[in-house]
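Researcher: Sequence of Lipid droplet assembly factor 1 follows. Predict its structure.
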Amino acid sequence: MAKEELRSISRNLQELQKKLSLLIDSFQNNSKVVAFMKSPVGQYLDRHPFLAFTLLVFIVMSAVPVGFFLLIVILTSLAALLGVIILEGLVIAVGGLSLLCILCGLGFVSLVMSGMMIASYVVASSLINYWFSPRPLIQQNTNGDFLPAMKSADFEGLYQE
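Model: Prediction complete. Tokens:
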């Protein structure tokens, strides 16, 4: 039973790998992506993947604060139409400074998050490669000779219920 589960997991991982490679190929063959990757910025980000990933995390995380700032600007502009011009300048200045502080904090957080995500990716991929790679079971004897850790007779009863 355990042998069948191991084969099933291996087959599922291979199917997942095929699907992911098809998805990546579809992104890489997109004409807009190809045009961007040929630009100097795209080539720079291609040579610096950590920076590209950090930039992606920063853009995703900064969407909400920038959206709130734009909402405040629109609301104060509407208030300016009603005659509260001095208040508009004050609100936009305070909002701009607070947005600058928030974006600086999000830049640091995105660096930390992308570092943690890359580290967890490396650890997870190493563990998966370690768990699912075929390797012989050997142990070292006291003489320095390597002996099989289990005899073939021990393997026969290992997967039986």
